[in-house]
Amino acid sequence: MADDASARDYRETVFLPDTPFPMRAGLPQKEPEILARWAEADLYNAIRAKRQAAGAPLYVLHDGPPYANGAIHIGHALQKTLKDFVVRSRFALGYDVDYVPGWDCHGLPIEWKIEEELRAQGRRKDEVSKAEFREKCRAYAAQWIDVQRDGFKRLGVLGDWENRYATMDFGSEAAIVAEFHKFVVSGQLYRGSKPVMWSPVERTALADAEVEYHDHVSPTIWVKFPVVEGSDAAQGASVVIWTTTPWTIPANRAVSYNPDIAYGVYQVEAMESGLEFEPWAKPGDKLIVADKLAGDVAKAAKIESWKRLESVDCQGMVCAHPLAALHEHYGFAVPMLSGDHVTDDAGTGFVHTAPGHGADDYLVWLAHGHREIPETVDPDGAYYPQVALFAGLKVLETEGKKVGKFGPANGAVMEKLIEAGNLLARGRLEHSYPHSWRSKAPVIFRNTPQWFIRMDEPISTPEAGGRTLREIALQSIAATAFHPETGRNRIRAMVESRPDWLISRQRAWGAPLAMFVDKETGQPLVDPEINARIVAAIAAEGADAWFTRPVTDFLGGHDPARYEKVEDILDVWFDSGSTHAFTLENREHTRWPADLYLEGSDQHRGWFQSSLLESSGTRGRAPYDAVLTHGFTMDENGEKMSKSKGNTVDPHQVIKDSGAEIIRLWAALCDYSDDQRIGKTILATTSDAYRKLRNTVRYLLGALAGFSDAERVPYHNMPPLERYILHRLRELDQQVRAAYDAYLFQDVARPILEFCQTELSALFFDVRRDALYCDQPESLRRRAARTVMDLVFERLTIWLSPLTPFTMEEAWSTRFPDAGSNSLRVFPSTPEEWLAPAEAERWAKVQAVTSVVTGALEIERREKRMGGALEAAPVVHIADADMLAAFEGLDAAEVFRTSQATLVAGEAPADAFRLAEVAGVAVEPKKAEGQKCARSWRILPEVGSDPRYPDLSLRDAEAVAAWDRTHG
Fold it and tell me: How far apart are CA 628 and CA 626, in angstroms?
């Protein structure tokens, strides 16, 4: 610091920050070391043991199981990180937290993978025993559980990993079957034959939660149904229907109408001319359509003109099937049925009704007293042999390169309608159509016998008290806390309108509907002893026991010839909806219900709802007290991530390049309740925020080197600046606790980062830097600053530990290598006496004045009239008495970071510097007078006053003298 070579070098006397905590984090290398220490210490169980010994209250987060298929993606990373925020923050708030990670293992995606493996070996699924197939599925899931577990642990996620759950564990499968038996015993289960959404590609029924809607192009046809019975006005006319599913025409049994719609008989007068094809309508044809849609029908059929003959009443009308002339199979009558599902918004005002292929069709058919539901299409989506003219034709292709595309059925039906003279028009329509969320292939409605759980019949169990499953579920929704609150309305609307719960699947890899059905009555056999034998066998041998053991092992004294063994498996949503039963019950140090379920917002129709229904049906309430949902993770342009677009973010690559801490900080800073964005630019911004945070922590560590309780200053002796920082700590303590309690992690991260930048780095550290470096160790100012820094460090490292645990662990162990893990700590109490609103008001005024000083000095530097701020001795004119009073007891030069400063009451000269936003303050940027201190670099008249140190200020001379005495 000396000005010339002959002067003494005072650097050894300056108390510069000293810490081994590196500026460059090296997180990709440092984090695995910290993880290894945590593993060696068995950190999760160590924290639980410490909390239990202290009598801490229990908090239960139940893990929604990810599917054991593939490496973790950024959505997994966000979700598991949010869960870790919950676990770690509740630990830090003083709770004993139970969190058991789990996996969903059954279901179609794994079956497909095994089928692919078999095909690669030249084998078909039907050539493999069910036992071998299931064993391959089990091994596949186990492999991915290990991969995903390693990925989650690499993110720093705490949990009871050694006792993880999986739906394919024998005990889990037994518990799932036991839960299923509760529905059987309580009478909530029934077998119904009704149209359900069916995936021909997957050969199984799908529940609502397994279906998503995508744009899809379908053929459209307008078909004539000749009237055979009806009013005089309808004689010789045809009712016209419009449909986007030509393949369902062979399954037609009725035409629906709405008595509130006005219908008319229209006679064709002329067809459009100059067409490239001959239209199917002819002059003289009489067609019955809704008046409101007559123009649309005429346009589709290329009718140039027609006239309305008269109104028509459809009640009692009967039509012929449009294919009746081609085969006697279609020679039945087609009645007209009234139904309020019919509208005149589009089409013809009539609805072609195939009760085996549509929910509304099925309901209107039953409502009019019909019971027989025709079966037209087999599990592969092909017409049954008995379907005349079309036997064996597929609706959708289920194999090869065209899988999911339309098969020949639609075209064949249209050709036969042309042949029969009953196709009026055809076209194509792009519309929203249901697809399997797994295969992404279109689904169809298909009538099949399936097992359902009733939503609307009273349940006689004590827990239900005569309420229906829907009533219990809706009451449970009302009693549950939702984060965000909008989740309540979303799941309530779904439960209010959902159909009975379809729980059977015609596949191999899953927990079975392990029951017997009386062949005479069609009712399930209810026998507690049989159920107990089934559950015990599955607990010992897994679900394979149900498929491989002889029925006599279960039936006991019952006649095997009388009973049908059900071989279907349970909907995987029933599996995951039952996880609370074997994870939260019959285990030590946990409880049912859970405090919280946390998943993506799509789980209102998935796990949240299946868990709600399963628990409501067996226990009379939801298995959770609160539900937290997060949005989807998009790219930084707000677009859905896709490998084909190349806009995905691989968490493994982010960890390799930057560390898991960057993913965690990104998750902490985003508003998880909405869709989040991530990409290179956002990650770079997050890394910059992390760098600033790390520098703050590093500065604290360096400034606190050698600090001990002996130099601690009590609160009543604290200078005003330290009181202000303690005031902010008290405010933040309340804010941080409330934010963690409400799961508002963004409201923890952002205020703390702002505090680090604004109050610590830009104010406290900057103002006190000179005192820390150059004051004697015994000075009150220096001791007070270090005391407050110690209190800041104590709080920052635990407040941020749930969000950035690696860095806070590194910082804590750097300073206290023998104190144990930072994660073992709880939030320290923050004294109420630290609240000092008057200091906050004072420093708001001081910083406003400082901003004017800074603005004035920036101009001086820019114009090269002055170098650094230490060359300045600003004269600050303050007209406002309260603003001037704010500087009472403060060293204005220290506050302004200048060598000297003068405060003057009153108005300033006209040429003084001003800021429009700070009224009544003006600055004359004078240069400091005197000599430059060789140690502190301040320019003061007193430099040289002490003959022992002619190049130092008096303060620095005393400090060096003390240093010389102690260092010889």
Answer: 7
Query: What local confidence, expressed as pLDDT, does residue 703 receive?
Result: 96
- Decide if pLDDT at 401 tops 90: no
Pairing of strands 918-924, 676-678: unpaired
Question: Of residues 298 and 484, which shows the higher confidence score?
Answer: 484
The pLDDT value given to residue 1: 40
532-to-175, 551, 553 alpha-carbon distances in Å: 11, 14, 12
Q: What is the DSSP letter of 431?
A: E
Q: Check residue 251 and give its pLDDT.
A: 87
Q: What is the pLDDT of residue 843?
A: 97
Contact 348, 293 (CB under 8 A): yes
Residue 621: its pLDDT value, please?
96
Banded pLDDT at 370 (limits 50, 70, 90)? confident
Q: In 3D, which of 455, 429, 527 has the Cα closest to residue 188?
A: 455
Q: Pick from 897, 811, 920, 891: which is nearest to 850 by CA?
A: 897
**What's the CA gap between 477 and 468, in Å, rounded?**
14
Find out whether 655 and 73 touch, Cβ atoms under 8 Å. no
User: What per-residue confidence (pLDDT) applies to 6?
Assistant: 58
CA 289 to chain centre: 48
Note whether 237 and 418 are within 8 A (CB).
Answer: no
The one-character DSSP state at 426 is E
What CA–CA distance (Å, rounded) separates 224 from 249?
Answer: 11
Q: Is there a cis peptide before residue 283, judged by omega within 30 degrees of 0?
A: no
CA distance 796 to 757: 13
**What average pLDDT does range 524-529 have in this prediction?**
95
**What does the H/E/C string look like for 753-814?**
HHHHHHHHHHHHHHHHHHHHHHCCCCCHHHHHHHHHHHHHHHHHHHHCCCCCHHHHHHHHHH
Cβ-proximal residues to 116 (8 Å cutoff; 6+ apart), any chain: none
Is residue 207 very low, low, confident or very high in pLDDT (cuts 50, 70, 90)? low
288 is written with which tokens? 């019955």
What are the two backbone dihedrals, phi and then psi, of residue 188, each rounded to the nearest 5 degrees? -80, -15
Q: What is the pLDDT of the chain when averaged over all its residues? A: 91
For the chain, how many residues are written?
968
How large is the angle between the packed helices 27-41 and 660-669, nearest 10 degrees?
Answer: 90
Evaluate if residue 307 carries a pLDDT over 50: yes
Q: 3-class SS at 255?
A: strand
Other C-beta atoms within 10 Å of 119: how many? Answer: 11
CA dist., res. 615 & res. 659, Å (int):
40
For Cα atoms 428, 429, 435, give the angle at the middle one, nearest 5 degrees. 120
Cα–Cα distance, 702 to 705 (Å, whole number): 5
Structure token digits, residue 504: 């059977």
* H or E element at residue 397: none
Look at residues 624, 753, 644, 638 and name the one whose alpha carbon lies nearest to residue 694: 753
Provide the whole-model pTM.
0.84
Please report the pLDDT score of residue 343 as a whole number: 83
pLDDT per residue as tens digits for the range 642-676: 877 888 899 999 999 999 999 999 999 999 999 99
Contact 759, 696 (CB under 8 A): no
Q: Is the dihedral of CA 28, 30, 35, 36 positive or negative?
A: positive
Separation of alpha carbons 310 and 305, rounded Å: 16
- Other beta carbons within 10 Å of 717: 11
Task: Note whether 699 and 18 are within 8 A (CB).
Answer: no
- The answer to whether the beta carbons of residues 478 and 460 sit under 8 Å apart is no
Q: Give residue 313's pLDDT.
A: 86
Q: What stretch of H or E contains 190?
A: strand 189-199
Per-residue tokens: 309: 């003959």
Measure the CA–CA gap between 382 and 929, rounded to whole angstroms.
Answer: 98
Phi, psi angle pair for 622, to nearest 5°? -70, 155
pLDDT at 567: 93
Q: Which pLDDT belongs to residue 5?
A: 44
Give Cα separations from 265 to 281, 345, 897 (angstroms).
Answer: 15, 19, 93
